[in-house]
Amino acid sequence: MWTEQENNLLKQLEETQKNFWNIDRGTANFLNMLIKLYGAKNGLEIGTSNGYSGIWIAKALKENGGKLTTIEYYEKRIVLAEEHFKNCKVDDAITIKQGSALEVLETLDDEYDFVFIDANKREYVKYFEQISPQVKKGGIIAADNILSHAEKVQTFVEAISSHPDYQTQIIPFPAGLSVSYKIK
User: Fold this and answer.
1) CB 59 within 8 A of CB 32
2) Are strands 112-117 and 94-98 parallel, antiparallel or unpaired?
3) CA 7 → CA 13, 60, 64, 143, 165, distances in Å?
4) What CATH code would you report for 25-182?
5) pTM beyond 0.85, yes or no
6) Cα–Cα distance list, 164 to 116, 119, 167, 181 (Å)
7) What is the per-residue pLDDT across 81-114, written as a single tens digit (0 to 9) for each?
8) How far is the C-alpha of 72 from the C-alpha of 108, rounded, in Å?
9) Neighbour tally for 32: CB within 10 Å
């Protein structure tokens, strides 16, 4: 799946996991498999950071003939992510949008079949409210840090878990991952 060069880069990025709040490799691999199994083609990532999760997500979307739009506030992180995307040969399947996630979300009009939330934890519920109408029936919303930042994401977890359009499961990866399937 990964070339030796790509795998070495991923391992280097994993060493900086705490500095950039990246997901762990198990979570990344799970999301990659989920996207491929589901056949998702149009993905959205809220919170690019240095590009680690975006690499895994974009690799799967690209294999499905799709693309990823990713949102990041900090220009320094975008520069890092662009370099990492290029080195892992997924840059041709990624569009980076810079700015506040809530403001950027207002400008997006695509429909998505996969969304990954990993940005400002207290804003998760707002991201969900804003993006939910653009998630296709049968689409997936995954969100990181559900256990590690439980208090900060509690309103999001309550909102998506009780929403009649979604079926949600929390998976006990190290930081906790919620996976929600849009049923209607």
Assistant:
1) yes
2) unpaired
3) 10, 15, 21, 24, 38
4) 3.40.50.150
5) yes
6) 20, 25, 8, 11
7) 999 999 999 999 999 999 999 999 999 999 999 9
8) 14
9) 20
